[in-house]
Amino acid sequence: MTTDPRAALDRLVAALEAHLQAASRRQGEADPAVVSAYQTLADAFETYDEALYTAYDEVTPFVLYDDTEDADDLDEDLDLEDLDDDDEDDEDDPVDDLDGSEVLDADDLEDADAR
Questions:
Q1: For the segment 51-80, what is each residue's pLDDT rounded down to a tens digit?
Q2: What Cα–Cα distance (Å) separates residue 16 from each residue in 30, 43, 62?
Q3: Which one, of 18, 46, 10, lies nearest residue 34 by Cα?
Q4: Is 111 exposed, middle or buried (0-12, 13-18, 19+ CB in 10 A)?
Q5: Which helix (H) or strand (E) holds 4?
Q6: How many domains does the chain have?
Q7: What residues have CB less than 8 Å from 19, skipping those under 6 apart?
Q8: Full residue range of the structural domain in which residue 18 is found
Q9: Contact in structure between 47 and 11 (CB atoms under 8 Å)
Q10: How many Å from the N-terminal Cα to the C-terminal Cα in the chain?
């Protein structure tokens, strides 16, 4: 099935709008309107991504995960025990912000107020 990328993009934007609207009116964790909007959004994205690739040999930087299979793969790739070990080493180290400046914690702020 060949789809015009512009038409697929229009459907994707409409699906994003519908998902936002459903999410803002959510009535519980498994609200059927949100679930439906989620699936419509996922389908619209896949259609757009395929149309973009077919027409222009281009892809988007996004990946859709299957609820069970890919989540399991992600858990295997991410070893939480390794993260816990790293946290122990960093406990006394100053934390740096992305720009390299030191980030102050609550104790630092209390020390500054005491001066």
A1: 999 999 999 999 988 766 555 665 565 655
A2: 18, 11, 14
A3: 18
A4: exposed
A5: none
A6: 1
A7: 34, 37, 38, 40, 41
A8: 5-114
A9: yes
A10: 70
